[in-house]
Structures are given as structure tokens and as C-alpha cells.
Amino acid sequence: MTVEHTGADVPVVIIGAGPVGVAAALLLARRGVRTVVLERHEDVYPLPRAVATDDEVRRILQAAGVGEEFAAIARPANGLRLLDARHRVMAEFRRTAHGRHGYPQTSMFDQPELERLLRHALARHPECELRGGVEVTAVGPDTTGPVRVTYRDDDGEHQVWAEAVLGCDGANSLTRDTVGAVWEDLHFEESWTVVDVRTDADVRCWEGVDQVCDPRHPATFMRVGEDRYRWEFRLRDGDEPVRELIAPWLAPSYDGDFEILRKTQYTFRARLADRWRSGRVFLLGDAAHLTPPFIGQGLCSGLRDAYNLTWKLARVLKQGGDERLLDTYESERKPHARHVIRLAVAMGWAMTGGQDGAAALRRGLLAAACRIPGLAAMAGRDLSPPLTAGPLVRRRLRGGLAGTHCPQPWVTAGGRRTRLDELLGDSFAVLTSADPWPSLSALADGLDVRAVPVADLGDDGTLAAWLRAGHADAVLLRPDRVVMDVVPAGGRDFTDPAGWASVLHTGRSPLPPPRPTLDNGLLRSAIR
Length: 528
Known about the structure:
Shape: globular
Distance between the termini: 60 Å
Number of strands: 26
Radius of gyration: 24 Å
Structural class: alpha/beta
Helix content: 25-40%
Largest sheet: 9 strands, mixed
Strand content: 25-35%
């Protein structure tokens, strides 16, 4: 056995090089935090998995530095349709091509392609090291000091010590056992067949996702790429030929060939780990929650985990943030994940719903409800609810902007067009409806950020309208672009700066400061 260091050899070890683990490494690298990523597979895992994402997650990929590369492999989708057993439309939930985060609300993609571009980005960062072909055998001890991770490869057994460990190692997570977490069953478990097909046939599709709400033969269908399609069928007795399964989507006269890229059986489950952290060991993605795929939010939830945790962890490791900052990861993400899982389970029961008389009544009520004017439009809105109130979401009353995401329009700065987040950088930001007043400027200086009047950003009026609708004269944005605190309209002070200031700062000396992330030249141009 080789021991790499008696102390912390690296700030962060990430177990698992799927999209969640690699995205976490990239987000930490942008804040100057080194990582070692340990992965069992040498290459990208080829089995069919996620094929849909939303605009919030595309914004996260932008923050990870791969937004433009992902755009090249993504395909905007129209939304979701619910079909009856005869494939007649019961409801249609449209998704816009321009969501509040600056991207199409729904995009289709092939997960192996996403993983390849994430790994290529990882290789460009000297802060990141990927060790493939290794098996992690132990994580511990669970102490307040560095965490030991033991793994083995062809050369034997090794140990690496880290200030923090991120368990992105999937549903059968070893890290979850280390944390001492157990699954909470959210009461959905079904076996399905997933089929990926390539064909030049004229497949009937509407450039969105179809959910067939037939208790005998429930199915999901979507177009993934130019000639790539995904079908998911609940398993029945026997193994039906793929051609028979997909026949309802093909013209009766079609007798051409098609290529079955992958055909795999999955068990869709709804589960939530009862705890997500022990000391400096954290659970992310499928290690923390399992979401049925019916609303396309499984991978999305994992990437939200990475975005929520990494800026907090970087602040603790690099800028003297209080350890309590890390407590907010679970307190913010766990209720959010539970909400999304329940939405997915509700959609699953709408599709399958059993075969009793009550199930038929439920489907009838669903079809009737979907004909109510405006209901489909409401259901098609953002699936991601506001974060609950806590140390980093300060609100006096329910509602308002605190806990929601700031929209991301295109802005003009320095004579060029750019997305808002590219202008603001990776740190905190203050947006105001008017020129900053002295107390606001002093607070912004304390956070080492600028207070930026939205009128100077040259957007299409989105930001000013957003502030007016939220009855706010200024907002404090976290690095993940969630509104942390608000200056109410007509006021001069944030709701509760004392509540979050002590969490963001401690008296201890931080490690060397991270490299600057604000584009100060653009900001100066924007606020002249």
C-alpha cells in the first residue's frame, strides 16, 4: 500500500466521474480548488441514461464552462404531451425556446456525448486530475480532520487524504454507507425497458416528449438527435420484439431497417437518503436521491446538487467561510429534491396508475382537468421551486424574490453582447433598480462585489421588470444566482444581513484567495 500524504493531499476528492462528479470538479476548478476524481470506468459508461435537461441546468453547464459546447450537441424540445391508450393528446405542456435562465426550457441530448465533453473540459484544467480504472474500497475515518479515501488499481492499493469528499457514486453508493444514510422509500418502483434506436424512418413525433398514459402499455417516447430516438416501456410478461414495441410510431407501410443502439432494463425508483452529509463527506446525485424519469429531472437534480455545494465548499476552503455554510447544502437541496421526486411520481401514476376502478377515474379526471383553460400553461412552468428560507435565503414573508433565481437575459457591456452571468462572474452580485446609495455600496464593498444598476446593463428590460414584480429595489445574488436577500421597494436595507454575514465569514484565516472571477472591465463599462 502507498500512502500519498500524512495530511490533506488534495482539497477535494470526488468519487464518480459521471456528469455530476465532473461538473462539480469543473465548478470547483473555476474557484481555484484542486480535485482528484476517482472513477471505476476508464471510458464513458455507454448505457442509456438521461436524455433531457432544463434551462436551469444549462445555466449550470454554462457556469462550469461548457455551455457553448453543450449547445452543439443539444436539441431544443417543444415540451411534454400526455397521450391516451390510442395516442390521442390529452394534454400538452409547452416549453418555450427562451426560458428565464437564457436557454430553451427543455433540451434533448445523449448523455455519453455530454460526458465526453465534460471529460475533455476536465483535461483542460490543471486543478483537476481524473484517475480512471480504479475501485474505491473505503472512505473514512469520519473525523473533523482530513478524510482518507482508499482505492485500488492495477498497481495495488492506495490512499489519498482530502479536506472534503464528494460522493457522486450513484445509486449503489459506497459513500452513502460511509455517511450512514439509509433510503426513504417514496413509494414508486417499476421495471421498464429502455431502447435507443437510430433510423432514417419517418417517425411520428412532435419534437417533444410523449407520455402514453395507458395502464396496460405505458410508454415514453422522444427524439434525441437528428436520427436518434428513445423509447421506454414498462415491462410485460415476455420479451416483445423492438419492432412491435415501436410500431405505433412508424408508418404502417414502413418495412425498412433500424439500428438498436442499446436495449436495457431498468428499475425506476423514488428514494431519498435520510442524510446527505457526515463531517466533510457529502452525497450528490443518485447517491442522495433517485427520481423516476417521467419529468426528465434525475440528472438535473444531481447537477443542482453540484452547483449548490461547490461554491459553498470553495468559500469554506479558500475564503474563510464558516463551517455552518456547508450545513445549508442539505437543508436547501433535500426539500427541493423531495418536491421534484413527488412531481415525477405523480406523473408516473398518471401514466400507469394501476388497473383498478379508481385508476380509471383518476385518468378521467386528469383528462378533464387538462381541458381547463390555462392549466396546461401553469403546469408547464419552471419545475424548480424556490429554495426554502434559511441562513442563505432571507425572507420575512412567503413569496417574493428570495430563494428564486435571477433571470439571465443578454446584456451589453464594453460594446459587446454577453449573458448576464458572464458579466457578473462567479461570485456574489448586487443588482439595483437605481444608482447605489451609500449603505448599499458599503455592503457590496464588504463582499468585494459591485452594485450594478440594471438600467445600465442594456438588456431588454427583463431585469427591471423582474425587480418591480418582486417589489424590490435591490437584490443580493449568491454565486449560484439564487436571490439571498432583498431590499424591499422604498427601503434602504436588506432584510437580514446579520443573519448571513456570520455564515459567509469567520475569524480564521482562509487559504490563499482565489483568482479573480469578476470581469471588472465589463462591469466598469456597464455601470458608467
